[in-house]
Specification:
The protein has about 180 residues and is of the alpha+beta class. The chain contains eight helices and four strands.
C-alpha cells in the first residue's frame, strides 16, 4: 500500500523537472531513507506528541543541513501535512526507479545457487540487454534453491530454469509417451 502512495507522490513531484535536479532529490531522499532506519529518528517522526512544524524543521535543518531546494522543502512540508513522513524509504525506491526508467536502465536480479564468474555475468548482462532493448545492471544474489532465475521487476520480466521443474516435466513427458 505504501508503495502505491509513494508512486503517486513521486509522479507529481517529478513532473516537469530536469533529470539532474531529480538526481539531487534522490540523494536527499536517500539520506532521509537511511535516517529513517535509525530508531530515534523514526520515533521522532512517528510521535504524535511532536508538532508537525518541528518535525519539518528537524528534517530540513538538522538531517538535510539546509541543503534542500525550495521545491524539495515544499515536498517535505506536503508530506508532513498529509502525515506521510513515514514514506521516505518507499519514496527513495520509487524515485530511483523513475530515474532509471528515464535512462532506460533497469536493475536485474540474477538468483543462482552458486557464485558466477564475472565474465559470465557480463555476458548474461549484454545478451539480455540486447534482447530486451534496454540497459541492464545485473546484480547477483545467492539463494538455496537449485536453478537460475533472472528477474527485471520494473519491466515485469522473469526468466527461470529450475532443476526440479525440468525433472517433473521430463517425468510427465515419459509417462505420456506410454
Amino acid at each position: 500500500m505504501k508503495e502505491l502512495i509513494a508512486k503517486r507522490y513521486i509522479k507529481a513531484f517529478s513532473k516537469d523537472v530536469a533529470q539532474n535536479e531529480l538526481q539531487k532529490d534522490l540523494e536527499l531522499l536517500g539520506c532521509l531513507a537511511k535516517a529513517y532506519e535509525i530508531h530515534k529518528f523514526k520515533e521522532i517522526i512517528e510521535s504524535p506528541c511532536v508538532d508537525t512544524c518541528k518535525k519539518v524543521d528537524f528534517i530540513l535543518q538538522v538531517i538535510l543541513e539546509r541543503n534542500a531546494t525550495q521545491r524539495f522543502s515544499n515536498f517535505i512540508k506536503i508530506l508532513a501535512e498529509h502525515k506521510r513522513l513515514d514514506l521516505f524509504q518507499e519514496l527513495y525506491v520509487e524515485l530511483s526507479s523513475y530515474i532509471t526508467s528515464l535512462n532506460r536502465e533497469y536493475l536485474a536480479n540474477l538468483r543462482v545457487n552458486e557464485n558466477c564468474d564475472e565474465a559470465v555475468l557480463k555476458e548474461i548482462q549484454s545478451k539480455f540487454s540486447k534482447k530486451l532493448g534496454v540497459s541492464l545492471i545485473l546484480k547477483q544474489q545467492i539463494v538455496e534453491e537449485a536453478g537460475i532465475k533472472l528477474v527485471v521487476e520494473d519491466l515485469g520480466v522473469e526468466i527461470s530454469f529450475s532443476q526440479e521443474k525440468f525433472i517433473q516435466d521430463l517425468k510427465n513427458h515419459i509417462i505420456q509417451a506410454f
